[in-house]
Amino acid sequence: MTTTEAPRSEYRLQRAGFWLFASHLFAIFSMAASNLLLGAGILLSPWLGRPWPRWTPATRRWLAWLGAYVALYVVSALLSSEPRISLRALWGVFFNLSVPVLALVFVRTEEDVRRVVRGLVVLGAILATVGLVQYLLGQNDLEHRIRGSLSHYMTFAGVLLACDCLLLAWMACGNGWRRIWAWAALVVIQLALLGSYTRNAWVALVVAVTVMIVVRAPKFLLAYLPLGVLLVVLAPAP
Fold this sequence. Notes:
The chain is an all-alpha fold. It has 9 helices and no strands.
């Protein structure tokens, strides 16, 4: 292999790694398929991640904190009343924590970030549309909540919440507000979140929006005062 062919081969492997990582996110509508692709990404990362990216000091500090968190988790499992059961449960923790680490390995350019964000926004809009159809077909009470293609309504709301936060951040900090389809996705996802009757997701969304306002436009926090008064006035009597 010539010196010219070597970088090309590495580039193709990097792109394969990126699309493998992205596909596991885009396949979240099926947890089994998503976990299978994530597992493949973990196993193939030593080959598809070459050459390893040069992480910034801030990224290294974040990884150090993540490693400390994992170490504390292992210690707590060892000191638990049933260490065998606790240690077996660590597998799920390690599996999920591999997602941000793989993102650091495979997502290397701003364009890659944009592809992932746009793809997840589209996915969220599709899942939300499926959920709204279910709502119109009768899954519209606390006993029968919408869940899209997922197995549980809380998983559905959690996925929508993640997609919604990405969409809001893209619109607030990027050029997403210029895209008509982004506004359509925003409306559909909000309606599906409301229709999921998942209070935790609602609270988390309010917190996320508040953080964005604090970072981007603190003066808009004043709007919380009339909104709070309106909420108190319109709230049903106990």
